[in-house]
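Continuing the batch. This is chain 6 of the set; chains 1 through 5 are on the previous pages. Same settings as before, nothing changed between runs. Recording input and output for traceability.
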Amino acid sequence: MNYYGNSVSKLIEEFAKFPGVGGKSAQRMAFHVLNMPKEHAVALAEAIVNARQNIRYCAVCCNLTEHDVCVVCSESKRDMSTVMVVEDPRNMAAYEKIREFKGMYHVLHGAISPMNGVGPNELRIKELLNRINTGEIKEIILATNPNVEGEATAMYLSRLLKPLGVKVTRIAHGVPIGGDLEYVDEVTLSRALEGRREM
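Output for chain 6:
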C-alpha cells in the first residue's frame, strides 16, 4: 500500500537501488531529504546530475575524472614502468593516501564474478593490454581485493599478462595489525605465512 504518495514512494524506491541500502534505510534517507531545507535538496540533486554528466574515464588509467587525463596520470614524476591494477577508484584512493606508491594505476571497474554476470569483457582489461603493448611497462602489481572475485581476477590477469614479458606481482595479504590470530580465517593465515619476510 502506498502510504506516502507517489513522489515519496518513488524517492524511497530510488534510494533502495543503492548497494547495501535496504527498505528501512531507503525510507530514512528519503525522509531526511524531505526534511532538508529546499536549497540543500536542490544542491544534492544538482551535485548528482553534475557528477553524472561531467565524470568520465581517464584516457590512461580508466580512473574517474572530469578531464581527459586524471590528476594522478598527469603527474610527470611518477614511475611509468610500474602499474598497480585495482578494482575501483576507491582502492586507488586508498593507496594514494598512504603516499608510498610512486607508480601508475589501472582501474578495472570491477572484478570477475560469474555469479553476478561479470566476465573479463565487462572489465577494463583491453585498455590495460593496450598500455602494455606500448612497451613502457615493466611490472604489473595486481592489487585486487583478497576475496573470491579479486583472487579470480588476479589469477586471470596473471595468466593473461605473463606471456607478454612483463613482471607480474601480487600484493601481500596477511594478518591485520591489532588482530587476534584465533579470529583470522585460514586463507588469510596461509597468505600471511607465504608472505613472511626476514627480520
